[in-house]
Fold this protein.
Amino acid sequence: MQIPSSVLRIWAVFVKELVQMRRDRLTFGMMLGIPILQLLLFGYAINSDPKDLPTAVVVEEQTPLVRTLLQAMETSGYYRFVMQTDDPRESSDLLARGEVAFVVSFPAGFTERLVRGERPQILIEADASDPSASSNAIAQANTILNRALRHDLAGPLAGLSATPAPFELVTHQNYNPEGITQYNIVPGLLGVILTMTLVMITGMAMTREVERGTMENLLAMPAHPAEVMLGKILPYVAVGAIQTAVILVAARFLFAVPFVGSLGLLLFAVTIFVIANLALGFTFSTIAQSQLQAMQLTFFFFLPSLLLSGFMFPFRGMPPWAQTIGEVLPLTHFLRIVRGVMLKGASLADVQIPLFAISLFTVVVMIVAMLRYRRTLD
Amino acid sequence: MIATDPNALAIDVRGLVKKFGDKTAVDGVDLQMPRGQVWGFLGPNGSGKTTMIRMICGLLRTTAGEGTCLGFDIAREVNEIKLRTGYMTQKFSFWTDLTIRENLEFVARLHQLDDMSATIDRVIGNLGLMDRQKQLAGDLSGGWKQRLALAAVTMHTPKLLLLDEPTAGVDPQARRDFWDEIHRLTTEGMTVLVSTHYMDEAERCDRIVYLANGKKLTEGSVADVIRESGLFTARAEGDGVRRLASELQGKPGADHVAYFGSALHVSGADEAAMRAAIRDVSSEGVTWTDVRPSLEDAFIALMSRAGEDHRTHS
């Protein structure tokens, strides 16, 4: 039977594409790598019902009743007590720095007043800068505490277990009392947009020279690799500045996101973050062979940045391995800074650790870029 | 800075070797080139011309061998070399999305030229591109691109100019203009090493170096190379030439049979055997004359003596 000539021509193109696909190893790897990455991240890392949230307890008395309540909270899985103090100032510092997600406070004489039927208050203060991270734990708190008391209130105290509950649960959603998601998302978007666009822009920087055949000329000229890198990065710092301005104006006037901290501190952090992303892009462009590959590397980096940084899903809801990866990503640290400064009024001292982390990332990435930069055509 | 003797060699390299994986692109080449001359690099594609030039200007690391370019070590003083040489790549490698003027400005800034604007005005004026200076370099024709590239790599008045097949794909008039410019530059004291496939260009060089399979086969003036080839050449003209070519091919004595325009050149190292081969074939409609072997005859002989053709493109 005669095969139609059109089929033969399709076959010719098909074979050619197959050969070219096989030759571009990175693209082929990405076609397999990205689905695997997505499967792992979406499948294992993401948890919209975060548990084990670090909690500080402010309590002055150690009665069996208080211990029962605390134990019930811990066994619920939502709260993990990391410290106990009788100084409320210490605990609110921890909350401001984001080291704990909750502060649970029992007032003085809690047990005695409860036994007397005076309905004393239990205060749960939550870091609501990320409302989705804290909402479930707060929603469950009343049920957890009531159920715990039902066992203890036996005998002469049995009357207290009737409704209403023998205590009053008060919750304060700090930094974002109305639990408005935009307050969390919009500042985060600043980091996400900067990551996505800037890594990609400089990712093209060297690969474009290679693709257009201008690399040989550039190499033949008297310029040091670091000079080329800085010269290629600096124009885009200005681009990052414009993006930042647009997003901050939109945050203020379109989304009415509060800005309680120092603008100067935020801009300082943004500058370091912008340089980190540009340097990373430049490094990608010393690895990729083509602009397409640079795009793929960017996407390969962007995906975990989006999912593991705490932007889309609560950072504390992720398993430890995912949190470890998240800690490497500059976006994770930038989110802590931007949310801290805008929503909590964090000071330089509060954000020095994430700032240092981003700076370290930048230095390492730049060193890699310099080592990878081809000084010759070898 | 190292004081350099102006009479010293512009290029002085010994035993250069370059391997790419298990392929040897350049295999132990020496080159001693005095200042102020124009030398031609010849040889088939893949013979190592480009690789040699790239090693000399520090764009490729050598696998073995050593030497100096303008008195600077080609392995350790690459930046010094880059400051003093102009290298024009085989493929146009200026920025096609920059204008003519912007390309020249970029080069001028990298070389920190004094009085940049006036220098560029002068360069563009010399090129005759004053009214097109705001055109994108990518819109230029092949010949103009080459002239722009030459202007750009000579703007900083380098001591040594390395040109890698600068006139490939350029029309004859543009090639002539290009070479006039090269000769003008040498009168200003520039040393030029140019690789080419064109015989007329080779004949314009003070000395030619012939590479094949990464090795230097011969070196000398055009007359030297022809004499060294030891060839005797007969030229056949007429209507019967086409038929002759296939008949003579492979005959003992007729070492090389090649067309020159519509004429056929038959060359052999052994004159008597060559004449015997010619007598053997019918000379109907053909007139034979003895000619002095041309450079091309000599190269064809050199190439086939060098053995198998290993050309790869790079």
About this structure: The interface with chain A takes residues 54, 57-61, 78-79, 82-83, 87, 89, 91-96, 107, 110-111 of chain B (CB under 8 Å). Chain B has two domains: 9-225, 232-292. The mean pLDDT of chain B is 89.
